[in-house]
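Q: My labmate handed me this sequence with no annotations at all. I'd like to see what the chain might look like in three dimensions before we decide whether it's worth expressing. Could you predict it?
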Amino acid sequence: MSRSRVLFVCTGNICRSPTADGVARHWIRRLGLEREIEVDSAGTTGYHAGERPDPRTCKAAARRGYDLGKLRARRLAQEDFERFDLLLAMDDGHLAILQDKCPPHLAHKLDRFMAYAREHDETEVPDPYYGGARGFDVVLDLIEDGVRGLLDSLSRR
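A: Here is what I predict for the chain of 157 residues:
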């Protein structure tokens, strides 16, 4: 299997995409897939560049055994379209931004993150930023499902 590089994308890279990044890193390590799969995350905006994930995101993730403490927000860069094999959008708005910025010959690399989920029918991971604490747990439920499907898909390539 060749090495797969995956980028998770949300708005500010402080809630949804770093959660996907951290959950995926956890399971990649646990399954011994470090040589086969590389992940990262980015935001469509640079509002939070250099910041740690939202404290509520970190707290919810830690309750499930995921450490997001070393992650730092960054903005999507044009070279990401070349570097990554898959750029996975957390919602339709992010996908539209990716489609707008992506060179046409690389558009096949773009998808919705939830396309890999098996247990949930949602097509988007909702933004928990302006909601209550429960929203961060919902995000984790969706992301754990999507990451399982993604890693299964990549390991079968």
